[in-house]
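Sorry to interrupt, but I need a hand with the structure work. Go ahead and set the record down below:
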Amino acid sequence: MTNGVYLGVDVGSVSTNLVLVKEHKEGRIELLEKIYMRSEGNPIKSVQYGLSRLGELIDKHLVLGVGVTGSGRKLIGSLLGADIIKNEITAHGIAALYEDEKVQTVIEIGGQDSKMILMRQGTVIDFAMNTVCAAGTGSFLDQQAARLNIPITDFGAIALKSKYPVRIAGRCSVFAESDMIHKQQMGYPLEDIVAGLCSALVRNYLSNVGKGKEILPPVLFQGGVAANAGIKRAFEQEFGFSVKIPQNFEVMGALGAALLAREAKTQTSSMGSETSNFRGLKLCAQEIKVESFECPDCPNHCEVVAVLTGKERIAGWGDRCGKWQHRSNQAIG
């Protein structure tokens, strides 16, 4: 169906990303629109706003499938009526393969998490994510840019001016900031300090997320931090080879979710089902609430999370027996 589109949504801790892709007869995918925005602590509101921005395009097409990924995938997937909900590793891996079928290493650094995916012959063979410290993520750079009183958008350009980057302790964001202040007090140029911070982030990432991993080219660098040219250069200096940044680096998770939705719907349509579970643009105008309660029906006392529009429960989870999940779309008294 040439007029059909797939919606992909990536709900992270810092950003919410949406893409709308169209499949043509020859199987080629066209990215109709992409949205990258801050979640601002409210993923539901950000998704509603993103959908409203896509409203005109969605009205012109039939939504064949919806895929959701990211740390908020369960909540947003239930809200949208997603056809498939997948983890970030799968979504980023699929998107990277679509960008370069020979990719062997995927670096993804977002606002508060980072990951590495190793791929061989089109299959994920290993992966790792940061677990404790944020020194290898975008929030580390945000904090230091604020401390230096420079826009984060200028961070990469300033770093590229450096000829002699200062070595800054990067194993911990607290120690890094203390070391950075010390270097400022010693009179080092701003560009050398900024380049040193970029190198510190890369060292932290490789010693934690990349520890023990065989990093082979082609390497794709994805996530919002890929916009920072200083980080790209620091990775290339560590590796000794070039790093590729996809055209849609900031929304690769959402693109992967859309591709996974296409794959899922292709399989179901072969069995006679072509419709999506997507709840539609009416979600943009609805007041949506999330409530939690302790189920009293058995000794487990499960803590159940419910998503409601008015008095209608559209999603629920958290119970061991699954009955609250089965009660979705039923009115609440």
